[in-house]
Every structure is written in structure tokens, then in C-alpha cells.
Design a protein that fits this description.
154 residues, Helicase, Ruva Protein, domain 3, Bit1, 2 domains
Length: 154
């Protein structure tokens, strides 16, 4: 469910709330009203992630798309790079290295079977370009579906 953009502008521009907390408030109240969103925000001021980038829960269609992509990936590690951050080639390479090593360590502790299969298949890795953080909901969907993944630079 998308948030009501008119209400979002009102919360941010007229009432002075931050965009991420406003998105959360509208999403969690079904964009019923700005008053409901304000009440939700006020009730959640102590939430540690209140101002973190907000992504709505993945839709059923997106879950199906990720499952299909995961099946086609097989034993490949997939790295997603946000091109909108305009990182240099060196910075992008460093971030991909961090992601690969971080995921390797996590899999060594939690999914050795997949990791060994990846090593036997030649340690194939695919790098995908994402236009924005909105595409990172794929990563959240991957978490839900237990597809090995790593997210950096969010």
C-alpha cells in the first residue's frame, strides 16, 4: 500500500515532521488521516528506526518475482549496487568487497551448505544496479524468503 502523497507533503511541509517518520505514520495508519499519522508518530517517538529509510512491506507479486529470480540465480551470490549514490568505481568495488565478505561470514555461521555449493560452483557472483533505495525492498523480501543476501550503503 502506498502512502498518500498529499498527506505526506502536509506532514512534512506544514507540520514539520521528518519524511521517514511521516511515511511510517501514514503507512501504519493506512493513510486514514494526517491526524491519525501524527498520533502514530507521537506514540512511536522512542522507536530506534523511526527516521531510518522506510520501505513498505513487499507485495505478494514482489515476493513471487524474488522467488523466481532466486531460482534463476541458483548458486550465485547477488550484489545490489545503488547507482543513485554516484560512488566512484573504487568506492563501489570496496563496498562490493565488504558485502561479499560480510555475507560469506554470515553464511559460514548459518548456511554452510549453501556456501559450500557456491564455492564448488566457482563462486559465481552477479552485480545488479539499483536506481534507488526503493528497490532495496527486494532485499527485505529476500530476508523474508531466506535468500542469501547482503545490504550495504543504505
Amino acid at each position: 500500500m502506498a502512502v498518500d502523497e498529499r498527506m505526506l507533503r502536509e506532514l512534512v511541509e506544514s507540520l514539520g515532521f521528518g519524511e521517514q517518520r511521516s511515511r511510517r505514520g501514514l503507512y501504519n495508519t493506512g493513510s486514514h488521516s494526517t491526524e491519525a499519522a501524527v498520533n502514530w508518530i507521537m506514540d512511536h517517538l522512542d522507536d530506534a528506526d523511526l527516521d531510518h529509510p522506510f520501505l513498505a512491506a513487499p507485495s505478494a507479486a514482489l515476493r513471487d518475482e524474488v522467488l523466481a529470480a532466486a531460482a534463476s540465480v541458483g548458486d550465485k551470490m547477488v550484489l545490489c549496487v545503488r547507482v543513485d549514490l554516484a560512488m566512484s568505481v573504487g568506492k563501489t568495488a570496496a563496498q562490493c568487497s565488504h558485502a561479499t565478505l560480510g555475507l560469506y561470514k554470515r553464511l559460514a555461521a548459518s548456511n554452510v551448505h549453501w556456501l559450500r555449493q557456491w564455492e564448488r560452483s566457482g563462486e559465481k557472483t552477479v552485480t545488479l544496479a539499483l536506481d534507488s533505495d526503493q528497490h532495496l525492498c527486494d532485499g527485505r523480501c529476500a530476508r523474508v524468503l531466506s535468500v542469501p543476501h547482503a545490504v550495504l550503503g543504505v
